[in-house]
Amino acid sequence: xxxxxxxxxxxxxxxxxxxxxxxxxxxxxxxxxxxxxxxxxxxxxxxxxxxxxxxxxxxxxxxxxxxxxxxxxxxxxxxxxxxxxxxxxxxxxxxxxxxxxxxxxxxxxxxxxxxxxxxxxxxxxxx
Length: 127
Fold this sequence. Notes:
This is 24462_t:CDS:1. The chain has helices at 28-34, 36-44, 60-70, 73-86, 91-101, 104-123, and strands at 3-9, 15-19, 22-26. The protein is an alpha+beta fold. It starts with a strand and ends with a helix.
């Protein structure tokens, strides 16, 4: 069980940070101003649900990595739905992502397409 910091625990703080057994309740804006790392970190987390960024092939890998790391289930589910709907457009990428993030339906269906085109690669200059 952690204890409140006697120095940096503000009633109107909007971020809780726990270090060992001490909880700090601080202001996100001040942390962002003080640290480039935190500015980057907080710019990547979906803190404001009214902001909408459509999932696309260009950003799905990043969305899934971020959602998996921070356990953002709504983004994982949205990404899964995107893959289930669009896996035929980029079956190789869908196959890799389905394997990495455990989407059995996408894995099964995209693998069929990947294995169908595998003989084409065998005959190409890559092999």
